[in-house]
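User: Some background: our group keeps a shared notebook of sequences we're curious about, and every so often someone picks one and asks for a predicted structure to add to the entry. Today it's my turn. The entry only has the sequence so far, pasted here. Could you supply the structure so I can complete it?
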Amino acid sequence: TIQKSNPEIKYAQTIIAPQQVAGNINQDWPFAKTEVRQAMMLAIDHPTIVADFYEGQAEMLDSPARKWYKSIYTPLEEQNETVQALYGYDPERAKELLAEAGYPEGYKFKMQMTNTPQSEEAFSIIKEYWAAVGIDVEAIVLEPTVFTNVWIGHSYEDLILSAYPGGDGSLFVRYSMGYYRGPNIFNMSFVNDPVGTDPVIENAYNIQCENVMVNYPEADRITKETWKYVLEQAFTIQMPAPWGYRIWQPWVKNYYGANDPKFFLKWAWIDEDLKASLN
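Assistant: Of course. Here's the predicted structure to add to the notebook entry:
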């Protein structure tokens, strides 16, 4: 690895947003049923993906709140039994749920995606696991520009695979329920759209609005509780979130791995003497 061959190199470990499957839950079709979405989660062996595919370097649960944001994050081991099961692996229960939902023979979906390595990897894994419980999924691979238009216009056919839905609880979107409320590009499963159709989400949004800038602990409390509901409903089908690394030369000073350095570059500087000594 770079760290072993260049021990002087600086690096920071981060988390890459997970690939997630979304679809319109307001249409009259299988994905609209909670049992089907939960079955799609149960059919995926999340623990093995983390342990084997990512060699332990991934987060099982990273959306809608990342573990960095402790005031709104609930670890998987503290979630209820239903949510814990969804991030485990139970193909037999998945088949039972499909049958209960009226699809004992499974169902066939189309899934639109781009040809990025992340999406291709996720699709190949998902396809194999879903096939084992009778869910057949066909990839519709789009060029990035076309995919962006489909995503922004919410004009996808059946399902869509990307890292865009769900969110991670970053401050700038934390208090809007935006990933799960009303018509916007990130609410890719049309949750609470039209606004008010999901009373749990709408109630959380109203409490957030009442408490932002006034009582942040209360705003965080309702957000944290609502994310538990979001996970149980499986509004998106989530894959594990792999770790990533940001690497920089030791002569770049006052930089510590920020995600978007354009805001911090004015404080970074180059140690020319150190750079010269390292050739």
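Suggested note for the entry: The chain has a mean pLDDT of 95. The CA atoms of residues 251 and 273 lie 8 Å apart.
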